[in-house]
Amino acid sequence: MKGLLSIRLAWSGIQKNRKLYLPYCLTIIGMVMMSYIMQALSYAPALHAMKGGSNLEAILSLGKLVIAVFAGIFLLYTNSFLIRRRYREFGLYNVLGMDKNALCRVAFWENLIVAVIGLAVGLALGTLLYKLAELGLVNMVQGQVDDSFMVEPESLKFTLVIFAVIFALIMIRSLIQVRHTRPLELLRSESAGEKPPRANYLLGLLGLGLLGGAYYMAVTISNALSAFTWFFVAVLMVIAGTYLVMISGSVVLCRLLQKWKGYYYKKQHFVSVSSMAYRMKRNGAGLASICILATMVLVMISSTGSLYIGAEDAIAVRYPYDSTVKLYFGRLDELDDRNVEKIQRTMDQALEAQKVTPTAEKICRYVTVSGALLEDRLVTDYTEVNAVMNYNQVYSLYLLSQADYNRMYGTDIALQPGQAMVQVYNGSWNGSHIQVGALELDVVGQLPCGLEMEDMTLVPSLVLVVSDLQQASVPEECNMIFSCGYDFGLPEEETLEAHRALEAAVKALASEQKIHCRVECPIVERQDFYITFGGLFFIGMILSAMFIAAAALIIYYKQVSEGYEDQSRFAIMRKVGMTRQDIKKSINSQILTVFFIPLLMAGVHLAFAFPLVWQLLTMFSLTNKRLAIFTNIGAFLIFCVFYVVIYRFTAHAYYRIVSESERK
C-alpha cells in the first residue's frame, strides 16, 4: 500500500504542477530524440558510402558528445526549479505525518515517471524522425539518398545508457535535498524573503576586466594559428566575465533605477523594480546563463552558416584551377630545367591524348619552409623554434627564381646574387635583410605582382624572388615543389576526363622517380567540402535548437517561479487601486528593463567575437568577409525574432499567474 500511495501522490503532484512539468518533459523528449538521431546518423550507410564519410562521422561523434554533456548539465540545472517549487508541498506532507522516507519515495516515483515518459516518447519520436534528419543531412552534403529504414540497436543502447546516468544523478540530488531539508524550511521556502543584495563593485570590475581582455584578444589576434590557440581561452573569459558583470551589474542597475525618482515612482515601474532588486542574486545568474546560451547560438549558427553558404567561394580559393598538379622533391637539383621539361612533356602528352588544349596554365617551381621569424632571421630548426617561438612569429617562406616569376607575370625583374624582392601576406614584416639557414639575402624592393598559395590564409607568409633558385643555399628542412595549374574551359564531364588522364600520367611519373605527388580537381573535391561544411552546419542547427530550447526553458521557469513569488505583491497592489492594465504595464516594464539585456549583451559578444571567428574561418579557405558579416547580422535578426516570441509567451504565463488569485 505504501508503494501505491507514493505512486498516486507522485502522479498527482505531476498533474497539479503540469505548468512546470510539461515544459520539463518536452525538453527531455527533445534531447533524447536529438541524441538518438545524432547517434543513429553516425551509423547511416548512406553517409558512410560517401567520399569523405569518415570526416562526417567524426563531426557527428563530436556532436553527440556535446549533446550528451549539455543535456546532463542543463537537465540538472532546470530540475532545481522543479525542486524549489515542490518544497512547500513536501513540507505540508511532512507536517501531516509523512516522514522523510515517504517523501523520498514520492520524489523517487516523480523522477522515475518523468524519466520513463521522456525516454519512451523521445526514443519513439527519434526513431520516426531519424529518416527525415538523414534525408536533410544527405541533401545538405550533396550525397545519394538511401530509401532503407532501420532502427540501430547501438544507438538505442547509447541513448538509454547516457540518459539513465543523467536521470540517476538527478534522482540522487533530489533525494539528498529532500532528506536534508527541515519541514519548516520546506513550508517557508517560497515565502522566505531575500536580503537586498549589495552591489559588489570589485566583482563587477573583475568581470569588466575579463570581458575587456577577451575583446582585446579577439580584435588584435591577426593569424589563424593564434586564433585557434586562444579561442577557448577567450570563451572562458567571456563566460566568467558575463556572470560577474550580470550578477553585480544588475544590482547596480536596480539601485540606479530606484534612485531615479521620475522613473521609479510610477506604478508600472515601482513593483517590478522593487521585486527585481530583492532577487538579483538569482536574477543575475539566470540572465547571464541566457546571455551565454544566446551567444553560443549566434556564434555557432553564424560561423557554420557562413561556411556552408560560402562553400563554393572556399572551393574556388582552395582550388583555383580545373586541375592542379604538385610534385614534391627531396633535392633542389631535381627542380632543374631538364627535369621540369620532362614533367611538362609528360603532362602535355596526356592532354594531347585526350585532345584537350588548356585555355590557361600556371607553372611554378618554388621552395617553401616554415619557422619562427625573429627580426631578420627565420629559425627553421625545430628544437630552436620550440624554445623561442610564439604563434605570432610563425611565418611561411616561399622562394622562387626571377626567371619563373618573370615568365608567370610578364615582368622584367633583374636581381643580382644575394638580392631578393619580397611580398608579405597577413603579416607586417618590413626588414631589409633576411637570413634562412646559410642563405642570406638583401631585400631590395617589393614585388609588383602577388603570388598566392592556398595555405597562405593560415599563417603570415613571405614570398621572396631570388636571382637563381638553383644557387640558393636553402636549409634541409625546405620542401622543393613543382606546381602546375590548368584551366580547360570544358563542360564538367570532359573536365573530369582530362583531369583523370593527367592524374594517371603524373602518378606514373611520380612512381618512376619515387617522389610524392598530389593532383587535385575542384569537381572531385567538392563533396569533401560539402560533407565537412554541411555536417558542421547540421550540427550547428541541432545544437542551436537545443540551446534556444534551453534558454526558453530558463526564461519560462524564471517567469513562472517569479510569478508565484509576486502573486501576493500584485494582489496587494490590486487592492490599493492597481488595475489589470497597470499590472500588464508593470510586467512589460520588467521585461524591457532587464530581460532584453542578455540579448543586447549577446549582440556585443557576437560583434567582438567576429574578428576571432573570422580568423578561424580562413582556416577553411573562406575569404568572403562580406558574406560572413551579413550571415552574422542575419543570424542575430532571426534570433531576435525567436527571443521576442519566447518572451511574449513567458510574459503571458507570468501575467496569468499573478492574476490567478484575483480570478479565484
How would you characterize this protein structure?
This protein is α+β, with helices and mostly antiparallel strands and 664 residues long. It is built from 22 helices and 10 strands. A 7-stranded mixed β-barrel has the order 2-3-6-7-5-8-4. The model has no long low-confidence stretch (mean pLDDT 79).
Would you summarize the structure shown here?
The chain is an alpha+beta fold.
Count of DSSP helices? 22
Measured distance between first and last alpha carbons: 35 Å
Order of strands in the sheet with the most strands?
A: 2-3-6-7-5-8-4
Which regions contain 5 or more consecutive residues with pLDDT less than 50? none
Largest beta-sheet characterization: 7 strands, mixed, barrel
Q: Using DSSP, what is the number of strands?
A: 10
What structural category arises from helix and sheet content?
alpha+beta
Supply Rg.
32 Å
Give the secondary structure arrangement, pairings included.
Layout: H1 2-16, H2 18-41, H3 45-48, H4 53-95, H5 100-140, H6 153-179, H7 183-188, H8 201-220, H9 224-259, H10 261-264, H11 267-277, H12 280-309, H13 311-318, E1 323-329, H14 337-353, E2 360-374, E3 377-379, H15 382-388, E4 394-401, H16 402-409, E5 419-425, E6 433-436, E7 439-446, E8 461-466, E9 479-487, H17 492-513, E10 516-520, H18 522-575, H19 580-595, H20 597-618, H21 625-658, H22 660-663
Parallel strand pairs: 3-6, 4-8, 5-7
Antiparallel strand pairs: 1-9, 1-10, 2-3, 2-4, 2-9, 5-8, 6-7
Notable traits:
664 residues, alpha+beta, 7-stranded mixed β-barrel, 10 strands, 11% strand
